Amino acid sequence: MISNRRNFYFKSQINIDEAIEVYVGQNSGKQLNEDLRNAKEEVLIISPYIDESKLDELLRLKNRSVNVRLAFSDLNPNQFKNILKKLIHQNKETNIKQREKREKLKNVFLILSILFLVVAVLLLSYSVLHLASKEYSILNFGILFMSLLIMNLSFHFWRKKNKAERIEIYRYDYSEKLNFKYLRDYYGERMFIHSKIYLIDKKIAYVGSLNFTNKGFTSNFETRVRITERDKINELREFVHNVFDDDINFKKHELNWLGKKVYTEEKY
């Protein structure tokens, strides 16, 4: 039967509003997409692979005050930065006192550098003119030596001005745009979740082979089971929340570490 058709569908009605549906084939995410768009309270997703474009749908749900939680195990290297930037917000804080200190020191050292440079040039010019006239006196040689010392002081204050410009005035931390759990490799202790689970509004559950990707939802030949049996949904929901809340067996990402991987941090 499957060889002659591009899909397989089976539904077992438990009662009026509770059923189990099995779908095998392409476009297996069509109904799931509709259920996600109509979510009112909560969406929980576990999927090893995710797409950048699919995240936009979850962010729209969050903007509608839907509680969204997402767990995944792997990222396409080409989408790594873009996906994490959609999930992580960079918070930049300016240290006002440090900035004022930096500007003050920079200006002071700049003025001192210019001042000593002018004095050094004047003294050097004076000594060179007299020495060129063959006035080889101790005074002229002393002025020449003094001009070189003052020139060195000018360079010294210029270096201090450059150092002052590098006083750090910005501090960064990171927050989640979306509640997520990135189950990556921890020092060789690989915790790879291959389950695909979707829970919507405590009323609808999906399990199967359907990754949270465009190909998984449309072109791939996938299997998905849609469940609306309340007791089973409640049990599955408790299991999924345990995955999110378990930071021992299912270790949580380090938010600041990931943030530094995808964002630049201007310090001064």
Could you characterize the architecture of this molecule?
This protein is α+β, with helices and mostly antiparallel strands. The chain has two domains: 7-90 and 176-259, Endonuclease Chain A (Endonuclease, Chain A), CATH 3.30.870; 96-168. It is built from eight helices and ten strands. The protein has helices at 30-37, 52-63, 80-87, 96-132, 138-164, 214-217, 230-245, 255-262, and strands at 7-15, 18-25, 42-46, 67-72, 88-94, 170-176, 179-182, 196-200, 204-208, 222-227. The chain has an eight-stranded mixed sheet, with helices on both faces. A two-stranded antiparallel sheet has the order 5-6. Strand 8 (196-200) and strand 9 (204-208) form a beta hairpin. The chain starts with 6 loop residues before the first strand and ends in a 6-residue tail after the last helix. The model has no long low-confidence stretch (mean pLDDT 90).
